[in-house]
């Protein structure tokens, strides 16, 4: 009985350690490495007179959300819908953001619905 209890405690402890690593330590290391790499890119840009883009922190979903509510994009969709309706070829009933998938993989398919 004691062996089962101890093995359960070890398993729970391993999961707790993994969650601490996943939520705290790995993002911290990623942040430090990104900072160092951005400094190195800045140094290369000044020494070699190049323009290398630093690492972007924006997430894909954040960019999609910005586009969904961008007034210029909404205006363009409304103009397109009006042009289609005026041509008599049809009407736009629903417009939504397009999430392209990579053929042959399941990347982004969890975001399709």
What's the topology here?
Blueprint: H1 2-48, H2 60-68, H3 71-87
Count of individual domains: 2
Number of strands: 0
Distance between the termini: 47 Å
Coarse shape: flat
What labels describe this entry?
113 residues, mainly alpha, 2 domains, 3 helices, flat
Structure description:
The protein folds into two domains: 1-55, no CATH class; 58-98, no CATH class. Helix content is 65%, strand content 0%. It is built from three helices and no strands. It has helices at residues 2-48, 60-68, 71-87. 0% of the residues are buried. The model has no long low-confidence stretch (mean pLDDT 78).
Quick gist of this model?
By secondary structure, this protein is mostly helical.
